[in-house]
Amino acid sequence: MRTNTQRRFLSQTAVALACAGGLSSSAAMADEHVLILLDVTASMSQQSVPGKSRLQVAKENINNFLDTVSPTPRRYAFWRFSGTAATPVFTIDQNRTAAEVKAAVNASVASGNTPLAHSICAGIDHLLNFLPAQLHTKRVYLATDGQENTTPTTDQCYGPYSSTAWPTLSVGSWQWKVRNKACTGLPNEPGACGDFPPPYPDGLTMIVDVDHLFTDTIPFGADARFDGAEDAERTASLTAGASLNADAAFFQGVSQETRGRYAGITPTTPPAQATPLPGDANRDGCVNVSDRSLVLSLYNKPVPPGTPSDFNRNLVVDASDHQTVVNNYGRGCIAAK
Predict the structure, then answer these.
(1) Using the 8-state DSSP alphabet, how is residue 141 labeled?
(2) Are residues 180 and 238 both part of a single domain?
(3) DSSP string of 189-206?
(4) In whole angstroms, what is the distance from residue 179 CA to residue 259 CA?
(5) Of 1, 100, 154, 225, which sees the most CB atoms within 10 A?
(6) ∠108-66-296 over CA atoms, to 5°?
(7) Does the residue 334 lie in any domain?
């Protein structure tokens, strides 16, 4: 295993080579390394959109991502997390197919607590340690309902909840450490997410995509009475609601800073937006000629993270996005009678 010093040296060496033209568009940059990190804790069995649990929605979105067309080959790793640690199902060096990853994702069940900080940071290390002297796009795709609670105290990213909200995170908090880990590779060393003007060289920044499945309602809200046990319940509920809002701000902030995509999914999210089909650029639940037109209207244009037409999330609407529409044409549509 490489030390932090070695990892930093290798990263700096790779950047120097890239700047000198030593790693341009060679085979060393030919693929994207993606870790799919799925929360399978007990709370993921709670309802998300009507008729579906959070875990079901997470699975559908992962499957839909796996159905997108990438302009470069992808290598996949798949981990689940619950209890006190993440469980690698497939590692990045195994180079499993999208179909194999889908099968493993769909077989996942929910139980246990949430070692969220540990799982994200261990997953980032897993990607950084694979071909570290080459410049590959590195992406963590996290599906979670948040609420860190069981990262071991000895873990590199263990810490209390931040007492302040994003972007001003408390030094030493687990959020502060996870953000640093994604941007610099070191949990206790803040730094910019990429030191070059955009577009950043691949591999300099860990891209973090987040599907955040949470509730946007407070169970004991306006109709709760301010006395006795109900007052205590209301206080606990408001505290939980504040924590969820802080999680949402944190996940969204980290995704934006690393040029990733954030999706906040709650029970009131429209179904076509909660689990958007690959190829559905207008998010109406049907892949048809309108989606093709939207893709062509942005063709070869750079777009910000989260643009619906950028199905493969490479920040450009390109031929691969058009092919995603073609591959899924007619999906979700109701045939005219």
Answers:
(1) E
(2) yes
(3) ----S-SSSSSPPTTSS-
(4) 13
(5) 100
(6) 150
(7) no
Structure tokens at 162: 């931040």
Question: Same domain for 288 and 252?
Answer: no
| Structural domain of 290 | 279-327
At 233, give phi and psi (nearest 5°): -65, -40
pLDDT digits (tens, 9 = 90+) for 38-51: 999 999 999 999 99
48 and 110 together in one domain: yes
Final residue belonging to a domain, choices 265, 290, 317? 265
Q: What is the pLDDT of residue 279?
A: 98
306 lies in some domain: yes
pLDDT mean for each 10 residues of the chain (337 residues): 41 38 44 96 96 97 98 96 97 97 98 97 96 89 96 98 95 98 94 61 74 72 38 41 76 94 96 97 98 98 96 96 98 77
Q: Which two tokens stand for residue 277?
A: 């089909």
Q: Cα dihedral sign for 68, 299, 309, 72?
A: positive
Same domain assignment for residues 301 and 244: no
Tell me the two tokens of residue 229: 């046990």
Residues 235 and 321 in one domain: no
| 332 within 8 A of 275, measured Cβ to Cβ | no
How far apart CA 319 and CA 17 sit, in angstroms, is 29
Q: Cα 267 to the chain's mean position, in Å? A: 19
